[in-house]
């Protein structure tokens, strides 16, 4: 805001007479262009009722639009955009808050919850059960959103959140608690993924940036206040951490139904009966979904058990790791052969690949996945292991430990604001915030590691803010970058991004938990008389195990806390390679410009305006995209040659595309027809966007 104000003042001083005459909007310019020709071009015969649909009044006659001054058409479009954004905020802010806060509300409560069930040495499973399902089901929810529509799948996710919260709040056993957390994680996968898809539907990248900024700020705030809320609720009873979600989920059901039911994009199958649901599921990639869930689940299970519950070389660890890796590889093989025209595509002609394999032929898809993976690793590690540090090492109560994590919020807020400025104002592109955020986040996590070693609490708090700024810088631009390079495959593109964030956090927590438990083995499971004497009469399986530490002699307490400090330090060191890889990946990233450049040539405008808009065409701006390395193209002077033009699909275009694809698949299934390469190209969205002229 301040930047725009200063820029207007400077421009007014340099060009005194230019501010009086406002630049023409798109409608005024098109109207003036029509006046300069023989007359407005009308499609169809105005006397023929069959051509009445072509005589659209979306663009009024020249005399109805004033050449200067405010444009009524622009006012109407801005009003509609504000109403649509208001509905999105009112209908989705509570589900988004719920999915975000449920991830971190147990950060400061985990040791106390685990102690209640006598499972302090398995406390990482409270978050692992959540992140395992929240990671594995993200691509599945993305495909279900295309089949059954956004509204039905979003309501399904909210119902799972309600049931999972009830299970957790009333849990009487460790297994019942983990089952409830798994349901909450499954719900979070659907909510977070669907909201990102909904925000990208029917709008330009510029409008998407505004909407996403609001929700990313809500997400960052929820991540930060979650441990504080959980800490104070735990002081009363840890079950209140899960009771809180029940009324919010109940209210969100009605908000989504009354505000967004008619606004959201519908699927290819209407949910009217049980048979219609079965018909819709027949088009879902069930084989890929099963392979993906089992593969990811076994990998996370093996990394969580390794070194903590079982030795790394044990059968209990190696079997899940090996079998999970094989299933994960088979998932990509399955997706490749499920493409139209290939073996599985001919066997299951109605099914659509959960992750379209050609998307990974564009390098930015893989690079964005790496960056988002690292973002999840940094985010989860700070919230959970800094919480463990303050609880175990500094002996803070749960409420105070949660307050310490609040230092992450200002950093996220600064990062989100800088990302909003970089995407919406200057330089109006995604490369700058993504690459800068990668560097800042890596530096912040590295300095947190050093601060933990020295037990320097002010430095830990400051570096949490720095790491939060790096995380906030990458929240919104990653989604915008994915929407820019894949405007016609929003659901799978957003699913990949949403999958990588919790997957990075889950895998990072599994690695860190394994390292942490290995370093704390002498405390958790003392095997020698010397280690038993050093740990005193500390029983890890006691329901009051955290309180028992304070009852030990001072020298024994100091030994346990120093061991915990070293364990947390090495846990952070174990994820530093992920940070380094993400920094290197950010250098080779392409670029997406959020809005058109103001200095468009007259020829380009004339070419655009000479084509009359379709009856359903919406005022969605096109965007310039660079698929090769942006820095390399900039250094070699080939940036203009590498630019391409992409444009998001309108709501009507999406509906027609889905209907045409479904009709073609059903036709091929009846005839047993194998499509040719030319037909496959037509059925597949154009992977080669047009270059600017």
Automatic annotation (TrEMBL):
<feature type="transmembrane region" description="Helical">
    <location>
        <begin position="281"/>
        <end position="306"/>
    </location>
</feature>
<dbReference type="InterPro" id="IPR020846">
    <property type="entry name" value="MFS_dom"/>
</dbReference>
<feature type="transmembrane region" description="Helical">
    <location>
        <begin position="402"/>
        <end position="423"/>
    </location>
</feature>
<keyword id="KW-1133">Transmembrane helix</keyword>
<feature type="transmembrane region" description="Helical">
    <location>
        <begin position="567"/>
        <end position="589"/>
    </location>
</feature>
<feature type="transmembrane region" description="Helical">
    <location>
        <begin position="496"/>
        <end position="516"/>
    </location>
</feature>
<feature type="region of interest" description="Disordered">
    <location>
        <begin position="665"/>
        <end position="693"/>
    </location>
</feature>
<dbReference type="InterPro" id="IPR011701">
    <property type="entry name" value="MFS"/>
</dbReference>
<feature type="domain" description="Major facilitator superfamily (MFS) profile">
    <location>
        <begin position="88"/>
        <end position="594"/>
    </location>
</feature>
<feature type="transmembrane region" description="Helical">
    <location>
        <begin position="367"/>
        <end position="390"/>
    </location>
</feature>
<dbReference type="GO" id="GO:0005886">
    <property type="term" value="C:plasma membrane"/>
</dbReference>
<feature type="transmembrane region" description="Helical">
    <location>
        <begin position="186"/>
        <end position="205"/>
    </location>
</feature>
<feature type="transmembrane region" description="Helical">
    <location>
        <begin position="242"/>
        <end position="260"/>
    </location>
</feature>
<dbReference type="Pfam" id="PF07690">
    <property type="entry name" value="MFS_1"/>
</dbReference>
<keyword id="KW-0812">Transmembrane</keyword>
<feature type="compositionally biased region" description="Polar residues">
    <location>
        <begin position="682"/>
        <end position="693"/>
    </location>
</feature>
<feature type="transmembrane region" description="Helical">
    <location>
        <begin position="88"/>
        <end position="117"/>
    </location>
</feature>
<feature type="transmembrane region" description="Helical">
    <location>
        <begin position="217"/>
        <end position="236"/>
    </location>
</feature>
<feature type="transmembrane region" description="Helical">
    <location>
        <begin position="312"/>
        <end position="337"/>
    </location>
</feature>
<keyword id="KW-0472">Membrane</keyword>
<feature type="region of interest" description="Disordered">
    <location>
        <begin position="13"/>
        <end position="33"/>
    </location>
</feature>
<dbReference type="InterPro" id="IPR036259">
    <property type="entry name" value="MFS_trans_sf"/>
</dbReference>
<protein>
    <submittedName>
        <fullName>MFS multidrug transporter</fullName>
    </submittedName>
</protein>
<dbReference type="GO" id="GO:0022857">
    <property type="term" value="F:transmembrane transporter activity"/>
</dbReference>
<feature type="transmembrane region" description="Helical">
    <location>
        <begin position="430"/>
        <end position="451"/>
    </location>
</feature>
<feature type="transmembrane region" description="Helical">
    <location>
        <begin position="123"/>
        <end position="141"/>
    </location>
</feature>
<feature type="region of interest" description="Disordered">
    <location>
        <begin position="600"/>
        <end position="619"/>
    </location>
</feature>
<feature type="transmembrane region" description="Helical">
    <location>
        <begin position="153"/>
        <end position="174"/>
    </location>
</feature>
């Amino acid at each position: 805001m301040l930047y725009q104000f200063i820029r207007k003042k400077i421009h007014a001083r340099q060009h005194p007479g230019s501010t009086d005459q406002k630049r023409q909007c798109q409608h005024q310019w098109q109207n003036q262009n029509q006046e300069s020709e023989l007359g407005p071009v009308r499609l169809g015969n105005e006397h023929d009722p069959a051509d009445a649909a072509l005589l659209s009044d979306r663009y009024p006659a020249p005399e109805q639009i004033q050449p200067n001054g405010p444009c009524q058409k622009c006012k109407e479009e801005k009003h509609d955009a504000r109403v649509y954004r208001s509905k999105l905020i009112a209908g989705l802010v509570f589900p988004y808050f719920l999915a975000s806060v449920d991830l971190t509300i147990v950060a400061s409560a985990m040791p106390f919850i685990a102690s209640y069930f006598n499972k302090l040495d398995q406390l990482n499973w409270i978050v692992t059960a959540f992140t395992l399902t929240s990671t594995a089901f993200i691509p599945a929810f993305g495909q279900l959103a295309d089949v059954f529509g956004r509204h039905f799948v979003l309501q399904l996710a909210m119902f799972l959140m309600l049931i999972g919260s009830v299970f957790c709040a009333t849990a009487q056993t460790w297994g019942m608690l983990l089952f409830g957390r798994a349901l909450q994680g499954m719900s979070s996968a659907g909510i977070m993924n669907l909201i990102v898809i909904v925000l990208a539907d029917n709008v330009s990248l510029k409008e998407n940036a505004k909407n996403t900024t609001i929700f990313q700020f809500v997400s960052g705030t929820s991540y930060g206040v979650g441990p504080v809320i959980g800490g104070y609720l735990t002081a009363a009873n840890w079950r209140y951490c899960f009771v809180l979600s029940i009324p919010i989920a109940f209210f969100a059901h009605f908000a989504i139904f009354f505000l967004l039911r008619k606004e959201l994009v519908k699927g290819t199958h209407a949910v009217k009966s049980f048979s219609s649901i079965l018909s819709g599921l027949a088009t879902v990639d069930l084989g890929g979904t099963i392979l993906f869930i089992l593969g990811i689940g076994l990998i996370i299970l093996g990394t969580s058990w390794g070194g903590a519950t079982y030795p790394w070389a044990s059968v209990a660890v190696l079997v899940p790791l090996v079998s999970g890796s094989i299933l994960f590889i088979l998932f990509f093989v399955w997706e490749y052969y499920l493409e139209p025209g290939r073996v599985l595509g001919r066997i299951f002609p109605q099914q659509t690949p959960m992750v379209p394999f050609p998307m990974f032929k564009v390098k930015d898809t893989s690079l964005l996945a790496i960056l988002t993976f690292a973002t999840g690793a940094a985010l989860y590690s700070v919230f959970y292991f800094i919480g463990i540090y303050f609880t175990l090492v500094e002996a803070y109560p749960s409420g105070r430990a949660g307050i310490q994590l609040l230092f992450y919020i200002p950093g996220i807020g600064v990062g989100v604001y800088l990302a909003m400025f970089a995407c919406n104002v200057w330089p109006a592109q995604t490369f700058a915030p993504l690459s800068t955020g990668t560097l800042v986040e890596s530096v912040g996590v590295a300095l947190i590691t050093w601060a933990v070693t020295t037990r320097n609490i002010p430095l830990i708090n400051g570096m949490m803010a720095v790491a939060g700024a790096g995380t906030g810088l990458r929240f919104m631009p990653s989604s915008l970058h994915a929407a820019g390079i894949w405007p016609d495959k929003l659901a799978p593109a957003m699913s990949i991004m949403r999958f990588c964030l919790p997957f990075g956090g889950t895998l990072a927590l599994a690695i860190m938990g394994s390292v942490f438990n290995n370093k704390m083995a002498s405390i958790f499971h003392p095997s020698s008389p010397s280690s038993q004497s050093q740990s005193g009469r500390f029983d890890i399986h006691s329901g009051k195990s955290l309180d028992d530490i304070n009852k030990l002699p001072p020298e024994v307490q100091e030994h346990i806390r120093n061991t915990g400090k070293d364990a947390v330090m090495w846990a952070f060191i174990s994820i530093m390679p992920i940070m380094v890889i993400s920094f290197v990946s950010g250098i080779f990233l392409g670029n997406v410009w959020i809005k058109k450049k103001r200095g468009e040539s007259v020829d380009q405008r004339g070419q655009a305006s000479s084509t009359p808009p379709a009856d359903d065409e919406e005022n969605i701006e096109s965007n310039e995209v660079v698929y090769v390395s942006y820095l390399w193209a900039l250094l070699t002077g080939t940036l203009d040659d590498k630019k391409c033009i992409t444009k998001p699909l309108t709501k009507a275009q999406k509906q027609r595309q889905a209907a045409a694809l479904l009709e073609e698949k059903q036709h091929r299934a009846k005839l047993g027809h194998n499509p040719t390469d030319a037909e496959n190209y037509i059925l597949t969205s154009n992977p080669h966007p047009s270059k600017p002229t």
